From TrEMBL, chain A:
<protein>
    <submittedName>
        <fullName>Monosaccharide ABC transporter substrate-binding protein, CUT2 family</fullName>
    </submittedName>
</protein>
<dbReference type="GO" id="GO:0030313">
    <property type="term" value="C:cell envelope"/>
</dbReference>
<dbReference type="GO" id="GO:0030246">
    <property type="term" value="F:carbohydrate binding"/>
</dbReference>
<dbReference type="Pfam" id="PF13407">
    <property type="entry name" value="Peripla_BP_4"/>
</dbReference>
<dbReference type="InterPro" id="IPR028082">
    <property type="entry name" value="Peripla_BP_I"/>
</dbReference>
<keyword id="KW-0732">Signal</keyword>
<dbReference type="InterPro" id="IPR025997">
    <property type="entry name" value="SBP_2_dom"/>
</dbReference>
<comment type="similarity">
    <text>Belongs to the bacterial solute-binding protein 2 family.</text>
</comment>
<feature type="domain" description="Periplasmic binding protein">
    <location>
        <begin position="29"/>
        <end position="260"/>
    </location>
</feature>
UniProtKB/TrEMBL annotation, chain B:
<feature type="transmembrane region" description="Helical">
    <location>
        <begin position="75"/>
        <end position="96"/>
    </location>
</feature>
<feature type="transmembrane region" description="Helical">
    <location>
        <begin position="229"/>
        <end position="247"/>
    </location>
</feature>
<feature type="transmembrane region" description="Helical">
    <location>
        <begin position="21"/>
        <end position="41"/>
    </location>
</feature>
<keyword id="KW-1133">Transmembrane helix</keyword>
<feature type="transmembrane region" description="Helical">
    <location>
        <begin position="135"/>
        <end position="154"/>
    </location>
</feature>
<feature type="transmembrane region" description="Helical">
    <location>
        <begin position="102"/>
        <end position="123"/>
    </location>
</feature>
<feature type="transmembrane region" description="Helical">
    <location>
        <begin position="180"/>
        <end position="198"/>
    </location>
</feature>
<keyword id="KW-0812">Transmembrane</keyword>
<feature type="transmembrane region" description="Helical">
    <location>
        <begin position="283"/>
        <end position="300"/>
    </location>
</feature>
Amino acid sequence: MQFGKTIAAGLIGAMAFAGAAAAQDTIKIGVSYPTPTHAWAAGMNWHAEQAEARLEALYPDVDLILINSPDPASQASALEDLVSIHGIDALVVLPFESEPLTDPVLNVKNSGALITVVDRGLSQPGIEDIYVAGNNPELGRKSAEYMMSRLESGDNIVILRGIPTTIDNERFDAFMAEIEGSGINVLDHKHANWNRDDGFDVMQDFLSRFPDIDAVWAQDDDIAIGVVAALEQAGRTGDGMFVVGGAGMKETIRGIMDGNELVPVDVLYPPAMIATAMDVTVAAFKSNGPVAGRYILGATLITQENAASFYFPDSPF
Amino acid sequence: MPELAQTETTARKPKLDLKMYGPAIALVILCIIGFSLNSAFLSEGNITNLLTRSAFIGIIAVGATFVITSGGIDLSVGSMAAAIAGIMIILMNALVDILGTGVLTVVVGAGCAVLLGALAGLANGLLTTKGKIEAFIVTLGTMGIFRSLVTYFADGGTLSLNFDIRGTYRPVYYDSLLGVPYPVWVFAVVAVAGWLLMNRTTFGRYCTAIGSNEHVAQYSAINVNKIKTWTYVIQGLCVALATVIYVPRLGSASSSTGVLWELEAIAAVIIGGTVLKGGYGRIGGTIFGALILTTIGNILNFTDVVSNYLNGTMQGLIIIIAVWLQRADWGKPKD
């Protein structure tokens, strides 16, 4: 049964592919991602548009079609449209959610298109040809490494976490594993939902509760902005206090370039990964080297020295 | 009807106390719990934080008390706050070139916020009354509209206030008068004004009458549409005031600003003893409701006894218990 299905799918796929190839010589690549409703996603949208302009100028026969969708169901419909209307040769997709989009992406694959999945994996292995993602555990580990380089045994830190999700757990667990045995005390950790207001409230409460805090791991640049406001309000920005965020927001990077002592570094989780995925996907058609595989981007520690290369003043993020 | 039940119980005995003072008692119990978990809970700094933080939801909830008492509902307040904050920031940034970075720019920005709040409330009110659409649907619609407007203005990202204006505006949130932060003063003034309007004016009595029975109110020569529209305008003004003190806190607005504020405001109103279907409203209770909601979050941050993942459970339980304490027929003989 399964075997028969695969054959059938393969045949349909082959036919569709042949049909598309015969119809035109343009390489059509659909790029599908969630509608930008928060800053990180807006940055991703911006980088996708930049990559589209750059790649289409570089290769006149490449046509990139960018579509964003407000919810998983619309994204599934958008994927169907990309196949039926545009007859895409490849799909770059950042799934809204893993479960509900696994089948729709599989259907696109069955149409013969090359599949590149970005950031959020599908719930079945082996569907994507190319996988491009940031490295959440590495983000936690890098942050912990930096904390250990600045702090001594017996120093106290507090942690503000994101929204309770796998992403947050991966970051947090890796951080805790790395910091274990260093003698640095984690006083407490609370969820601040990757949100400035929550970061402010949670940090205010941490400051009332713990008289001695040496550093803060905010995990995210938005939370870090709230944390910094709370620290300034309480007048506890001195004594070598520092905050480590994450993601690579332009304001944060700007501050690092200017030598901000309160937020001296950032750990990269770049929205520009969509551009990497688009590059790699185009390379699958243009390069003479093999391209399929998994690309896990580094969680680079951004310091004053290298900050300039991660600074995009025109991006909304 | 609730009015009647109220007087009846008063006449009977002190059974009323729990209903009347339920929200205050719940807040005291919460404070005792907070203090026993960590004595820093009652430190001056934390109390100030708590009151200042309550101001946003509290001010909005005072407006919501009028809307709900007169039988309406406004789901758009959180999105409205975000949209007003966004427009206010854009306007003030644009005014830098003309008016400079001084107080004038901030005053114009705040004035514009108040105007926008009143207009947004008026739109909600007119669509509900003249448009004859259920308030739930009207405000569900405007909720989506306001929310997507701020996303659009911010290009999906975050709108940030010009750094120099932030310096001028910052004291509105962070500074104090007589040891009490300005947002708490605003909250107090709004609360007193709301209480007077609800309990000492014909407008307040009309709200209650309309909420109890709109048709009877109509036949009693009350201009129902006008009064109802006004409740939404008051709600809009409250949202605008809350926004004016919210913006200087972090100097930014994004699509995540004010998310779920509408539900917190409605919860504060109901915890305070106002009846969700209208006809009975209590401003004093609403104030305690807002304080209770903020205190729950504060206490959860003060302890690691409860798993972080269960924060929502604790909040839900306390809200339900707080309302149950007021509603259950305590010691009443079964009829």
